[in-house]
């Protein structure tokens, strides 16, 4: 009790240094565990989590090819579309090398608006005879194809999802913007016109109303789309079985017309390693002129962790400064608190019969009081708050603290506290008893007192 009481008095007597020590210990522990959580999550996201992705692969027009595909010129556009036969070499090459995959596909073609459904206008619309229509009708073979949608992922705000296996289904999904414009709701029917035969129409039932999960960019934005069909809000989604039943996937469409569907085959793989093998095989087999192979799912994943990577780049040097600087400051504060201005206190303690061991233990307890509790609070606060910090600063990507980080920092913190306590204790341990009998000078006059209890006459 004597040691604890004296230690507490010493801490409160030097309140400024003590408060600064507490604050530094708190900030260092909090900042270190939060920073390590961010760096660990970033390492996992670019390492094990990336390798664990189940990527897909698609053939997409290069930027140059896409620029040459005019929305009001069927010949320049549909002549560059791929057919199933264009994909066969890659499937065969993968099978020969035992590269496992599954596949799905989408087909897209323009359709005309009607009295029952009007599209959101573009900034420079052309006639439907030139563009094939104001809407894009995209048919998904299955749910995997919908997930790989290059217009962006979406969620339903009303209604139900598509039925992919029934040839009797007539359901379609329309955007909330189009539904609001036309006063359509789930269960209503609407008609769209054939891209080349203006007299032919197809009737769909509104099965669901969707909104995209992210903001549009480029011409897909309603504010910058030149043609109405280039605005992704004007995309009508349906099942391939439905489109095929309606005859919107003709076996032999007339060349150079908008009746030629834009086929997009999606290859799916179990892991990134298999995907990389497929990419090498596809490039070796030669890609179609004007096309490149990409992975929408991997691209989306990379985009999702980009804010995390940017945050980690900033945190990494800051962590070094925080850790090294924090240790240096704590060491400096410990030395300032125990090694300077306390000779008289130590001398009086020794004269009063306090041993070096007991005094050294008091100095260590002072250090424990100022560091153990703040460090524990900082680690706990950082541990519980790191996930929210990451979500706020890394684009919503949570950065939870792992048990490995927690235990490593607990042992590191204990090691640092013990080291600081030893530094504090050394002041008492190395104090020379001879200094008790050294002459003391008061205002330039040397005292003849032989110990601190004597008073000059």
UniProtKB/TrEMBL annotation:
The keyword Transmembrane helix applies. This is ABC transporter permease. The chain crosses the membrane at residues 318-340, 361-385, 405-426. InterPro entries: ABC3_permease_C, Macrolide_Exporter_MacB. Its main location: membrane. It is found in: Cell membrane. It is a multi-pass membrane protein. Keywords: Cell membrane, Membrane, Transmembrane, Transmembrane helix. Signal peptide: none annotated. Coiled coil: none annotated. Residues 321-426 form the ABC3 transporter permease C-terminal domain.
